[in-house]
Amino acid sequence: MDSGEAVSAHIRELAQRVTLVENAGAGSAELLGSMLTPTAHIVGLTGPPGVGKSTSTSALISQFRANGESVAVLAVDPSSTFSKGALLGDRIRMQEHARDPGVFIRSLATRGHLGGLSESIYSVLKVISAAGFDVIIIETVGVGQSEIEIAKMADTSIVMAAPGAGDGIQAAKAGILEIADIFAVNKADRPGVDSTMRELRAMLAMAANEPGWIPPVIPTIAIDGSGFTELAQAISEHYAYLIDNGLLELKRIGRIRESLLARVINRLAQQAIAVEASEELAARCALGDLSEDEACDLIRYGIDAP
Does some domain include residue 255? Predict the structure, then answer.
C-alpha cells in the first residue's frame, strides 16, 4: 500500500499540531513529550538564492512519490526583521502536489533565527515524523557561514549549485564543502555545467583525507525533472551508508543536542530582554563601571545591579 494512504486522514490534525508546537502553545510540551525521536529520513536542501531550490524540491517530491514514499516538506522562509512575518512563497511553487494525500507542505518563518532554520524546527520534525511520513525535506533560505546549521538537522544534506555563477568556489569559502553529502548542479542545460562539476569534484578530491562517503556531484534540470532519478538514488545510498556504518544514530543524537542548545540560548535571550535593568547595565559597561561578564551574570541570575 502507498504510504501516503496511511497519513492522508491526519493531514488536518497534523497541520494543527505543527502550528501548536511552532508557537509553543498550551499543551505543546505534553504533546512533544509523548512522541519518540524522529525516525523519518530527514533531507536538507540548501543553496544560494536563484539556484532553483523550490523547483528542485518539487521534482524530488515527484520522485519520492513515484517510489511509493510519503513526503513532508518544511520550506524555511526568511522573516522580516521588523514584523517577523515571512513571504512563504516556496509553497506556491509546489502547488502541483497540494492535492496528493501523501504529501504535506508547510512553510516556517525563521523569525530572526540566525542559522537560517526556525528555532522550533526540531519540535516540528518530531510531530511530522510521528505522523508516519517516510521522508522530510527541509528547504532552507540560502547558504552562508551560518547556514551550515542544516547539516546538524538533516540526515542527508544536499547543496545545490548552478553553472557559471562561481558557486563551487563560494561553497568552499562558506564551509559548505564540508557539510554537503550530495552536490546537485541544477540548470544543467546551461553553458558551463561541465566546468562547474569538474571544479566541485576537484575540490572534493582534495578534501577527501580518509575513506568513507565521497559526495557525488549530480547534474539536474529541475524544470523537467532530469537527473532527479539519480539524485533520489544518491539520497537512498547515503541513507544506507549511514545505517551500515552506525552513523544514523549519531546524527539523531546530535540533532537532539542542537535542539537542547537552541532552547537554552533562546530562553537566556528572552530572560535578558525581560530584564528591565539591561539597558542600565549596558550603559555602565560603556562607561567602564562594569565588565560585560559581570553584566551577563547579573542578567542570568536575576541579581539587581548594585
Answer: no
Rounded to whole angstroms, the Cα distance separating 248 from 232 reads 18
Residues 6 or more apart whose Cβ sits within 8 Å of residue 164: 190, 191, 192, 196
CA 12 from centroid of its chain's CA atoms: 23
Residue 52 lies in a domain: yes
CATH number of the domain residue 137 falls in = 3.40.50.300
pTM: 0.81
The tens digit of pLDDT for each residue in 114-135 reads 444 556 788 889 999 988 899 9
Q: 547556514: which residue's cell?
A: 147
- Tell me the C-alpha distance between 94 and 74, whole Å: 12
As for how many domains the chain has, the answer is: 1
Planar angle of CA 195, 200, 245, nearest 5 degrees: 145
Q: Is 297 inside a domain boundary? A: no
Handedness of CA 173, 178, 179, 182 (dihedral sign): positive
- Domain coverage including residue 196: 4-247
Query: For residue 111, is it within any domain?
Result: yes
User: Mind listing the pLDDT tens digit for each residue in 214-273?
Assistant: 899 999 999 999 999 999 999 999 999 999 999 999 999 988 888 788 778 777 777 766
